[in-house]
Amino acid sequence: MSALDAKLAAALSSREQRQIRRRLPDPTSSSDSSSLIDFSSNDYLSFSSSPMLRDRFLSVLSEAPDILGSGGSRLLVNGQAHNQLEVRLAHFFGSPTALLFNSGFDANAGFFACIPQQEDVVVYDEYIHASVHDGVRASRAKNAQFSFSHNCIISLRKLLLRLIDERPSLVDGTCSLFLAVESLYSMDGTFAPLAEIVELFDRYFPRGNAHLVVDEAHATGIYGPQGRGRVAQLGLEDKVLARLHTFGKALAATGAVLLTNVLIRDYLLNYARPLIYTTSLSNANIIAASCSFDMLENGVAHNVTNHHRL
Ligand SMILES: Cc1ncc(COP(=O)(O)O)c(C=O)c1O
Fold it and tell me: Does the keyword Transferase apply (predicted)?
């Protein structure tokens, strides 16, 4: 066994002993939909097996001018379908602009790696998704990354007051604070106290240099009017710097959209490496996501969620 093999095997064996070794599930169990009830996937609206969505997708696909591939990075080939979906989603979610990413992971990793600047501070809920951690770790806000207890407004308030006390630049507004939360945490089914966070910001950061970033991955399609998420449900669109909606969970597609302002979008197009150095979503993928948004807009998703709540 080579030295590398020995080290990798030892790490895996350690995970095995701690009962945290990861393995791919049996692929046959996920396709046997007739005999099993799905309590584990993120296909919250059962869109992946919806005959209505499937028919719509196949029909749009058969009429579309381009369906295969995308030809390269968005910066090289900016397909009409991609562009149209962004315009549509900005309007649907009530945001100045929208920017597609290949996944929610890429969007979080890209945003947090490049938007916080050298003197800035990043605060996040202790349960925040791994993609935010990866982004923050790569960011220039090297020694200014802090977590607070899950959904605990008291813990957050304490942390913010401490940071304000220690950093005059947060008080005079010359540096910024970014706060990353998920609107709905999937592990425990808990909602972030978004309205209370906004109140804290208004109270302690009157210069407007505290920015809320909300990951709506698990709320997309389920909460808010037409499934537009918790931020929309609470009417906080103008209080949030960026919102992330992913297509891979309730929408049964792949990809994600980041809703934000014109300047941040432009900056991401110039600096977000997971966006710049990758082939964009295929046209078929864009069509699939688009068809799922049709289901949100035409009320089908709403009927499904209401039925489940009965
Ligand atoms: C809260 C949250 N954010 C982001 C992601 C990543 O999204 P995607 O699956 O589109 O990469 C996930 C998915 O695991 C998630 O649960």
Answer: yes
